[in-house]
Design a protein that fits this description.
single chain; 88 residues; 22% helix
Length: 88
Amino acid sequence: MEAVQIQKTISKDGEILITGLPCKKGQSVEIIVPPQPVGKAPRTRLTVGRLRQSGLIGLWQDRHDIGDSSAYAHQLRQQSQQRGDIHL
């Protein structure tokens, strides 16, 4: 049988209700509950597909004030590293 992953938010201390499982009466299951830190939203990974859909690729292609986009990006990185209010 395939594993089922369900995410729930606890609405009452010490209780969780899980319904809609693809299990039959009398079938044995194992439930593991790994609590996640409070306040932190789970980070989603940026996949190639999501990056392509984001509009970031080709963002500068129609800019007439930017000749070489790689050189421009390098210049921006250099400027950000030389700011006086940034301490790495």
